[in-house]
Write a structure and sequence with these properties.
The protein has one domain. It is α/β, with parallel strands linked by helices. The strands form three sheets. It has a six-stranded mixed β-sheet, sandwiched between helices. The chain has a three-stranded mixed β-sheet with strand order 7-11-10, covered by helices on one side. The protein has a two-stranded antiparallel sheet with strand order 8-9.
Length: about 375
Amino acid sequence: MPRLTLRQWFGWIGFALVFLLAAAVAVWRGDILRAGLDPQIPFQTYDPPPVPDYAEPTAWALRDVRTPGAGPAAVFFLHSTTYEGGEEWNGPIGDPDADAYLDRVVLPNYAGPFARAGSVSAPRYRQASLYTRLTLRDDARDARAFAYGDALMAFDAWVAAHPTGPLVLAGVEQGGELIDRLLRERIVSNPTLGARVAAVYLMDVIVAREPLSPSLPACATATSIGCVIAWSGVDEKNDGAAQRRLRRALVWDANGRLVDLTGRQALCVNPVSGAADEVAVPARRHQGAANATGLEWGVHPAFIDRAVATQCRQGILRHTELTTESFREVGGWADRRKARQYNLFYADIEADVERRLNVWMASNAG
């Protein structure tokens, strides 16, 4: 057996080092990317971006936008996380990458189902970064709570501009988390304002079922009004993901702090049936999923209906997945950790809000 030359030894050693480095990157890639989004400064000493002025059009992604034939509601929509992080705990207003993702993905897929309900308003806000959704550190919780200040200012400005008529509130992921606190601190304490709420939609977020107020309960049926529809969805076969989501969930306490769910029941209202129960809903009742990414505002997407079976179980919406090309996760590591780039329940939400608005209008006629 011939001996290896010195050059060959160095070659094999170099190959082994490259192999080990590649293997380490593959194993710890998520940790490496996550660490790159960490601002590396305590939130207590952090200087946040400038406060938005909600009297200015630039502070709104949508401001009372109506499509032809839209209904009578005023819709307040809070978007999900679009700012990834790195330098900031909370994203500045006007960040080009965050705004591009908002306009291309989030608004068409998640605000779009409410376009036919009435005028839609969606404020920009100093959102907590994607990094804050990936860690349970106190700094991250503080950054998520900080975003509520902007949500509150935007909501107060929006309500002042809509003194009468039915209201619909909707939020997805981080936006749903902030809407949940708005309900508890602004609407429940104001019976006059609460009476105007046709429905509230908290999409892709875990919120505590209790202590929801009797004046703004979970929607018991598909025709209930003045109630909350909330869910966080997981593949019906993925028990591990469902358990991890509940274990890592943070919800608001009475002092406006984000705390562990700690055994409380998560709220799940099935978006297909519109009811807060654990009845299995077959795929034939599913009204339609859509991938609206890239569509202009007001353009109606194509639907795939009768395709997704659903059931609320232990506070999580368990559902079958679509396997067609349009409903696969795409993009980089960070994009796959944001709200999905499609909406499995687009047509169901659209029909649900129309139905509840009709009930609200009939109840308030004359």
